[in-house]
Amino acid sequence: MTSKRAKRLNVRMSQSDYEALARAAGASGLTISDFVRFRCLEDDGRPRIVVDAEALRALYSNERRIGGLLNQLLRHANTRHQDFPQLAAQAQTALAQLEESTRQVSELIAEARISA
């Protein structure tokens, strides 16, 4: 026979764990109880990708800078309607930097999947 009354669950945790839980609940727009209930009962179980936000910001900034360089190179080539050897070298440098940045983003994602 099951009771229809609400049951209470008490969980002990450190102050820092509680504060982290409260921040996560607040960021989700939920109360702590609703957040815990959702994560325990309704969460779809898919792995969550967690990354270092500062590292991601640095990569994003780097890719924006590279995009700006490529944009300048393309504008220059378009307005001159000429083939400049140094322009090709600069484009190759920018593309190499973009490739490295993309590799770093890929590594961040791979690490996040392993730790999830």
Automatic annotation (TrEMBL):
GO terms for biological process: regulation of DNA-templated transcription. It comes from the Bacteria. This is DUF1778 domain-containing protein. It comes from Senegalimassilia faecalis.
